[in-house]
Every structure is written in C-alpha cells, then in structure tokens.
Amino acid sequence: MKRAFDHRPLRLTTLFCCALVAAAPAFGQDSPGPETAPKVEGGNVTAPATTPDAAPAASAGPTVTLPGLPGAPAGTAAGAADFPGAADEDGEGNASALDGPAPDERSSRLLDPANDGAVGRLSPNGDAAAQPAPSAGLGVLDRMGAPLPDLPAEKAFTGKVDEAYGAYQRGFYLTAMDSALPRAQNGDPAAQTLVAELFEQGLAVKRDRSQAAFWYKQAAEGGDPAGMFKYALLLMDGRQVERDRKKADEFMKKAADAGNPSAQFNYGQMLVADGAGDTGLRAALPYYEKSAEQGIADAQYALSQLYTNLADLPPEKTSRAREWLVRAARAGFDTAQLDLGIWLVNGVAGERDYEAGFKWLKRAADGGNVVAQNRLAYLYINALGTKPDPIEAGKWFVLSRRAGLNDAGLEDFYLGLTDEQQKAAISAANKFRVR
User: Fold this and answer.
1) Collapsed DSSP state (helix, strand, coil) of residue 3
2) 27 exposed, middle or buried (CB, 10 Å; 0-12, 13-18, 19+)?
3) Per-residue DSSP letters for 358-418?
4) pTM score
C-alpha cells in the first residue's frame, strides 16, 4: 500500500538554478501543486497534474517577442499599442503612487483545477491542439433503448492489507498507532516509519521529535525507502540527530535507488551541487527522469530545462522538453507556469501560441509571481493573446514595481498614460489579491 508521505521532495531549486545557465528567469517563485497530502516538515508536496484553461491555436498577425526573455529570437522588437492619451504629459502626477502600499498577501497559492473535459485545452506536447473531451460513456445507447453490456467481474484483491496505514489514511491516528507500534517494536521497517510520522506530526500522541528521529533511524536501517528518505533529511538538518553529510548521501541514494520519487529528485540535486557544470547535471539526469515520471513537479521542471540546455541529448528527449514543462505547470508550479507562458509566446521548443501563453502568464501572475506580472503587462500593451488594455498593463506594472522589479520600458509606458488611466491602474493594483 502506498503511504501518504512517500512523495515529498525537499526543494533545493537554488542548487539546480545555479548550475543551469539561463535556465529560468530571475525573481521566479515556487508554488505548491493544487492538491496536497499532509505536509511534512523539511519536505514539499506534489500534486496530480492540472489541466489548463482552453488554449486556442496561435493567433495570426505579426511576430512579436517579449523583451529580455530567455529563448527570444534575436532582432525582434515589441512595438507599443497606440492607446488614447498615451502622449499626455500630465501623466507624471501619479508616479509617486507607484510605491504605495502593496497588497497584504504576496505568497503564491493553489490554483483551482480546470475542467479536464474542456475542449481545446493544451495537448501534452503544449502545442495547443484542440483535444476532445473525455467520453461521457454510452449515453446514446441508453437513449436508444439498447441494453448496456455487463461490467467485467472485479478481480479480488490478493495483496496484504496494512490496517495501520489504512487507519492513518482515513484519519484514525490512534488506531494507526495502536496497530503500528507493536509491529515497529518487532522490527517492521514500514511500521517504524509510520510510528515516526505520528510522533513527528503529533497525531494521536504528543509531538516528540526525538522519538520520531529514533524510529526513522530504525526504519532507515531496516531498508524502508520512505524511512531512509526522512532519516537522510534529519542527517542533513542536524537538529534531532548529529549532522552527517556522508551518511545522508548514502541513505538518500539508497532511497532513490529503491524507487522513492522524492529521494530521486533530492539525490539529483545533491549530484548537481557536487558536480561541476555539465558533469553534475548529466549525473543527475537519470534521477530527475525517474522522479518526474512519478509526478514530482520539481523534477518535471528540471527536465524541461535540462532537455533544452544540455548538448548532445537524443531527439526523443529534447522533443519532450515542452511536455515536461506543461506537466509541471499543470501541477501548480508557478515558475513552470511563467516559463511555459514565455515559451509559448516566443516559440521555444515548439510553435508560438500567444493566447495559450497569455493564459499561463496570467495564471502565474494571479498566483503572485512577480516576473509573470511584469511580462503580462507587455502582453496587454502589445495585444498578444488578449485585447489591448492600458489599465490592466498599468496595474501589472504597478504590482511588479512594488515588489521590486524595475522596468524602464514599462515605466515610460506608464508615464505616457493619462492621469485618469494612471489612477485606474493604481486602484486596480490596490484591489489585487493573490489567488
């Protein structure tokens, strides 16, 4: 039985981003996925993929590239839309209001899952080809009066039922402890991991991190993958047990080789940190691939960057770069949403699609990603994937400026707005709340 805390990566994106040159834009923020398991200290949560909003095919018109973005074709400039009153010299009256009070909430939050049955959503390859909605079944036969065939007989479950983990997953923590503790005392590594989890979280018992560390150590030495992963984190942290980097690496590798997806991603991060340049990245690649296949959004994002930045990779890998970025973005990782929007607008690793790019940048901007807010302003100015809207462009400029991202081009645009337009943009920025 898969345990609820088997899939929790320790995010070390600083190490990965330092190793990649121009892999991700600056000021990117991390965001959790839209569905989470119970949180574990020192780890992060992963989520099933989320289908994005409908992504129509690329709009016709002149090619425009967002300024200063990775993957942008050289020699392409973005021209500003001709807004009424843009040349009004009285627009500087509201410039001081740019640095007014920012919204109360700045952190990224979960995004509501889109309808999986939406027609015209992004395909797995990110090419915005219209996808048919999932089948609604045999409703037509019902209406015609034809009898439906009998369902095949369900196969009986022959595996061993773990009552302790079943109780844990249903929220019966005292029952889980009563069932797991005797097994843990008799040397069952999986039960030892569960007992450690209950002590660590204070579920059904008083929180006791020392007891948790003891049982994680027993589980790790007994070979339980989840226990090895959690004990490796404790050895890296050095608070409940003595810090031991060498032993942490050993347990993390064992957990990764045993198939724990969170350990696979984190061991990849260790290899990137320890290896110089491409050496560490290439050593980490197989672990990222295994972790990504099991749904870790951080690993999916890492693959999208490695597949576009490492040389001499086979075409079957490089051709999937955008696919992995789509999967990470659908999981709610806002840096992936930012990059996917940029890739779609600039035509990186696939065709251009301004409308789909706008929607992904809007999703990341609504979640509080400052770089996405800045880029979204350019889309409103140049009418890429949306209608031109000087008020919305000004609003997103104000928000990104308040967060510390200065942009001389956007500031010139803002100062060219009328006094009324500036006031409206500032008012809209003041009302903004992270979604």
Assistant:
1) coil
2) middle
3) HHHHHHHHHTT-HHHHHHHHHHHHHTSSS---HHHHHHHHHHHHHTT---HHHHHHHHTS-
4) 0.65
Round to whole Å and give the CA distance between 121 and 56: 7
- The reply to whether 341 falls in a domain is yes
Host domain of residue 49? 31-125+320-435
Answer for the pair 40, 8: CB distance below 8 angstroms, yes or no.
yes
Query: What is the DSSP secondary structure assignment for residue 419, as one 8-state letter?
Result: H
Quickly tell me which residue has 């050993």 as its tokens: 250
d(CA 60, CA 48): 33
**Number of Cβ atoms within 10 Å of the Cβ of 76:** 13
Q: What is the CATH number of the domain that holds 401?
A: 1.25.40.10
Integer angstrom CA distances of residue 184 from 8, 31, 119, 197, 215? 22, 36, 50, 12, 8
Please determine, for residue 351, whether its predicted confidence score (pLDDT) is greater than 70.
yes
Beta bridge partners of 54: 121
User: For residue 40, what pLDDT band results from cuts at 50, 70 and 90?
Assistant: very low
Nearest to 264 by CA among 252, 278, 249: 252
First to last CA, the chain: 35
- CA–CA separation, 364 and 370 (whole Å): 9
Q: What are the angstrom distances between the C-alpha of 198 and each of 90, 234, 306? A: 64, 16, 38
Q: Is residue 328 one of the residues assigned to a domain?
A: yes
Q: How many domains does the chain have?
A: 1
pLDDT in tens, 135-172: 444 444 344 455 556 667 767 767 777 899 999 999 99
Q: Is residue 181 part of a domain?
A: no
Cα gap 325→302, rounded to integer Å = 9
What is the tens place of the pLDDT at every residue in 291-315? 999 999 999 999 999 999 999 999 9
Task: Assess if residue 354 is contained within a domain.
Answer: yes
Q: What is the pLDDT of residue 63?
A: 53
Residue 375: partners with Cβ closer than 8 Å, 6 or more residues away: 66, 69, 338, 341, 342, 361, 365
Q: Cα–Cα distance between 425 and 428 in angstroms, integer? A: 5
